[in-house]
Amino acid sequence: MLASLSSDIRQYLLITGNYWTFTLTDGALRMLVVLHFHTLGYSPLEIAFLFIFYEFFGVVTNLIGGWLGARIGLNRTMNIGLAMQVVALGMLAVPSSWLSIPWVMMAQAISGVAKDLNKMSAKSAIKLLVPPDAQGRLYHWVAVLTGSKNALKGVGFFLGGVLLTLFGFRASVVLMAALLCSVLIISLVKLKGSLGRSQFKPKFTDVFSKSVAINVLSGARLFLFGARDVWFVIAVPVFFGEVLLWDHWSVGSFMAMWVIGYGVIQSFAPRITGKHKGSVPSGKAALWWCLPLMVIPAIMAYFLGVTSNPELLMVAGLLIFGAFFAINSSLHSYLIVSYARDEGASMDVGFYYMANAMGRLLGTVLSGWVYQDFGIAACLYVSSLFLGITLLLSIFLPQREFAKSNI
To answer: Please, are residues 284 and 274 in contact by the beta-carbon 8 Å criterion?
Structure first.
């Protein structure tokens, strides 16, 4: 059956399968670390600090990874990412007495590099597999890849809990390392060797985009993801546990379901934003879809001070915010791939996801500090402020519309 498909479709399926497997294990690893170290007596903020290097090295990786992909090919950067994740899992498979905070942070740093190499390679490769005159197909493929990734990350949260219950921490990471090794072998054999390799040898300074559209979109992405993580990463789970008195499994299950739903909506974003009408979005769509998103956390913060049912407000608010955030994220993911140059696309995509990682890092740090000193309402107001900056930056995105026949 696969043999009857075109070469580009087979490569797309291989890249997507690679990305899916990596994402599933990445989500499972995050939940394994959270649950395991919680049982060891670590506080939520101490657990959050275990992921600081994971986010920080995502910034570095996206900056360097795009340049590296253009020089040596996206197949190699994708495979390097898989191999590094196997190393990170191996570091966590050591005896429990070795699992000190510095050791786990080092493993998480390697995992962060691996994750962003894999993501940058997958997103950049799609740009190269779709003809320039098929923007509708490009939007659809990017939305499916991005949405399914986030849905699988949520499934990975559940998988991590199940693996920990059935096999324990050490055996679980060994099983996941074995799975990724098998995927790596298939990828080494089947993925095109020339995929994404630039005909010229770009200088490192070329990673800093000279495109106004990409620079503006990258800035908007930074504040978009900072606005999510400033309350979602630490403040929400701690608030649910300490104030609403949810048990640990209830918090984890809700977060997993939120991420799955978020990913499903991302996959359907092309239909929601008008692809079925024969067009794909421009910067104007990113501007208008950001407006309701900016209002939601501000409304939630205001009503938290007057409501007698904060649980209902937070759950409903998170669901509404998640739906609008998924559409905004999917729009941005399409726009960066569309704006990226054909020659050396990985450098533009890598620069953009560097900004994404910076936003996540900023949001993670602020989520712990702002919540601890000022509370959940302050986190929501900061989120709304960040989205206001995203909205202002979106004004400067190219407003052109694409009418495509290959949708």
So the answer is: no
- With residue 47 as reference, give the H or E element that holds it: helix 44-49
φ, ψ (nearest 5 deg) of residue 280: -125, 160
- In contact, 163 and 29? CB cutoff 8 Å: no
Report residue 402: phi and psi, to 5°: -110, 125
Q: Is the predicted pLDDT of residue 212 greater than 70, yes or no? A: yes
What count of other Cβ atoms lies within 10 Å of the Cβ of residue 282? 17
- How many Å separate Cα 91 from the centre of its chain? 23
- Residue 158: CA count within 13 A, CB half-sphere: 11
Question: Measuring CA to CA, which residue among 333, 313, 334 is closest to residue 376?
Answer: 313
Give Cβ neighbours of residue 123 (< 8 Å, ≥ 6 apart).
Answer: 142, 145, 146, 333, 336, 337, 349, 353
The DSSP output letter for 403 is E
Can you read off the two tokens belonging to residue 66? 């795009």
Tokens representing 402? 């694409």
Per-residue confidence at 128, pLDDT binned at 50, 70, 90?
Answer: low
CA proximity to 253, closest of 274, 268, 271, 237: 237
Q: What rounded mean pLDDT belongs to the chain?
A: 81
